[in-house]
Amino acid sequence: MDLGKTGFGDRINRLLTQNADKAGESLNTYARRAIITRLVSELERESSPEVAAVLADARSFEAENIELTDPDTYLPGQSSGPTHLLIDDVDRVAAARATGMLGSPRDEQFDKLARMTLRAMGAQGASISFVDDRTQFVKASVGTTGTAAQPQTVAVERSACRLVVETGETLVAPDIRDSALLRDHADATTSDLIAYMGAPIKTEAGFTVGVLDVWDYRPRKWTAGHVKTLEDIAWLVRERIRR
């Protein structure tokens, strides 16, 4: 994390660094734990029954005390991860398959992360997918009911996830009808999908092996905060894969 870009003063930056050191964590890990803690705090203000399950999920991650790695760290010799790779790049495909996620059974931990994403984004759908050169394996998918769907495999040809995989960057579309990139991929997830955002799930070597995405059936003004939160939860997904 570049403290010069946080907008905080020197005193707060020093306190952040000192407290991260006291916790025995990197600054990135310390900051991301703070995001989860804030999410729990904000959800607690809501009393609706449907929030309870999501709140429990968020609390479980807050209390798990997982030692998270620095999301900006790659293999020795790499200052940044590989980006803009073709979907069938041999090394990327090998990395995707090495996760063991493709074709794997349903896992409540991934369902939790999908539910957290749905609630944090205030979206109508969220999913976690892993992608090789031919298929998109939807590991977890939830809708507005909060009920997770069974894992499924779909063709990657017209998948919006393909675009995230090939660019290695978060894709933000307030209205895919106005997006030259996404117009032809609208029916990949659902025929009436309007708003979409997908964040890459990357390995430590920087290969994009999956996508955490959210969508809506109406135009959405995705904010910088939405993007940051989605990317942070995508990072938590990566940590889950590593365990």
Task: Record the SSE blueprint.
Blueprint: H1 10-23, H2 27-44, H3 49-63, H4 90-98, H5 108-121, E1 125-131, E2 135-143, E3 148-149, E4 152-155, H6 160-167, E5 171-173, E6 195-202, E7 208-216, H7 224-242
Antiparallel strand pairs: 1-2, 1-7, 2-3, 2-4, 5-6, 6-7
Largest sheet: 7 strands, antiparallel
How many helices? The count is: 7
- Given the C-alpha coordinates, what overall shape results? globular
* Structural class by secondary-structure content: alpha+beta
Order of helices and strands: HHHHHEEEEHEEEH
Strand content: 15-25%
The percent of residues in helical segments reads: 25-40%
Question: What is the first-to-last residue Cα distance?
Answer: 24 Å
* Uncertain runs: 68-80
Can you count the beta strands? 7
Write down the overall mean pLDDT: 78
Description:
This protein has 243 residues and is of the alpha+beta class. Helix content is 40%, strand content 17%. The protein is built from 7 helices and 7 strands. Strands 1, 2, 3, 4, 5, 6 and 7 form a 7-stranded antiparallel β-sheet that branches. α2 packs antiparallel against α3, α3 packs across α5 (108-121) and α5 (108-121) packs antiparallel against α7 (224-242). The protein is globular. The relative contact order is 0.14.
